[in-house]
Amino acid sequence: QVQVVESGGGLVQPGGSLRLSCAASGFTFSNAGASWYRQDPGKKRELVASVSSTGYGTNYSAYVKGRFTNSRDNAKKMLYLQMNNLKPEDTAVYFCYITTWGQGTQVTVSL
After folding, report:
1. For residues 83 and 34, what is the distance between their CA atoms, to the nearest angstrom?
2. Dihedral of the CA atoms 43, 100, 71, 82 (nearest 10)?
3. Are 36 and 48 in contact (CB under 8 A)?
4. Which of 106, 110, 109, 111 is nearest to 38 (CA)?
5. Which region, left, alpha or beta, applies to residue 99 given φ > 0 means left and ψ of -120 to 50 means alpha?
6. What mean pLDDT is predicted for residues 61-88?
7. Per-residue pLDDT reduced to its tens digit, 4-49
8. Is residue 100 very low, low, confident or very high in pLDDT (cuts 50, 70, 90)?
9. Which pLDDT does position 42 carry in this prediction?
10. Does residue 94 contact residue 40 with C-beta atoms inside 8 Å?
11. pLDDT for the residue numbered 41
């Protein structure tokens, strides 16, 4: 069964950090590009970051570039999103997409 499961979301103060994880199973993880998206209620789901199958090619949205780092461990079939200097506008449900969507994990940045 093809499946990806996110974890690591939570409540953090502005300026804080969180690390999201995405565990993959049921497919050849090392062959697939991987991405993180986020979505606020009432808004479109937007691409946050993507990484190539090897992990050497990464892209980031202008909103997170310099603050977020997308990485992967192909041996462990894991995708990560390190989020630093978080801002209230980063509040959203974060989804990973690796051939299929995960269920999402809530990130809330607030005092």
Report:
1. 17
2. 40
3. yes
4. 106
5. left
6. 97
7. 999 999 999 999 999 999 999 999 999 999 999 999 988 999 999 9
8. very high
9. 86
10. no
11. 83
- Residue 63 near residue 56 (C-beta atoms within 8 A): no
Interatomic CA distance for residues 4 and 2, integer angstroms: 7
What is the C-alpha to C-alpha distance for residues 39 and 104, in angstroms, rounded to an integer?
A: 9
CA distances from 36 to 27, 64, 111 (A): 18, 11, 25
Contact call for residues 9 and 20 (beta carbons, < 8 A) = yes
Q: Average pLDDT of 66-74? A: 97
Whole-number Å distance between alpha carbons of 42 and 29: 32
Distance CA 90, CA 52 (A): 23
- Write down how long the chain is: 111
Type of residue found at 58:
T
